[in-house]
Amino acid sequence: MKVTEVPAIAGAFLFEPTPFTDERGFFCRTFDADVARSAGIDPDAFVQDSLSRSVRGVVRGMHLRSGEGEAKLVRCSHGRIFDVVVDLRPGSPTYLRRATFELSGDTQATLYVPAGCAHGFQALTDTADTSYRIDREHDPSEDVTIAFDDPELAVPWPLPVTLTSERDRKAPGLAEVLRTLEVKAP
Questions:
Q1: What stretch or stretches form a coiled coil here (predicted)?
Q2: 38-47 long-range contacts, CB within 8 A, separation 24+
């Protein structure tokens, strides 16, 4: 498994497995505790696995948690997604920078999103399953949502947005969120 630092977001990593492919399909390891440790990530810190299924054009995000934040490993297990991370940690050297990725079920690459970064994605295929491994139990009182179409974020969503949640549609812009957000620096 290859690990690459994401230059645009301090503390973010891309984990790319080496699949074994034959006439049956493929097999690959999508998580390896020793590889995570080698990148400075505590594999034992993760407490929850979640899965979302989205249809083409759906946008989920931009989401993060206030306070201690929430680190996560994100992987598209089926289909393809356009994934976005924005660094909202005031003390970070990559504060307010954005990084985008295409994650797919074909590659099974996993993105490590550090706590204090906003995250969202758009489904690029008819069905896209996205897996999350999260390092804190969910506390809805800490949920923060930023408008996915905020001009200040200027996320270049590759498809027309077909559907979002009500929460995402009604989310405030980045400037408003930054005025009230409490995120601890790395």
A1: none
A2: 38/3, 39/3, 39/13, 39/15, 39/112, 41/13, 41/71, 41/112, 45/71, 45/135, 46/73, 46/133, 46/134, 46/135, 47/134, 47/135, 47/136, 47/137
Q: Token pair 């706590």 is at which residue?
A: 115
Helices (H), 41-180: 166-169, 174-180
- Write the pLDDT tens digit of every residue in 40-50: 999 999 999 99
In angstroms and rounded to an integer, the radius of gyration of the C-alpha atoms of the chain is 16
Residues that are catalytic: 63, 132
> Each residue of 80-123: pLDDT tens digit?
999 999 999 999 999 999 999 999 999 999 999 999 999 999 99
What is the pTM (predicted TM-score) of this model? 0.92
Whole-Å CA distances, 112 to 18, 60, 70, 83, 85: 17, 17, 11, 12, 10
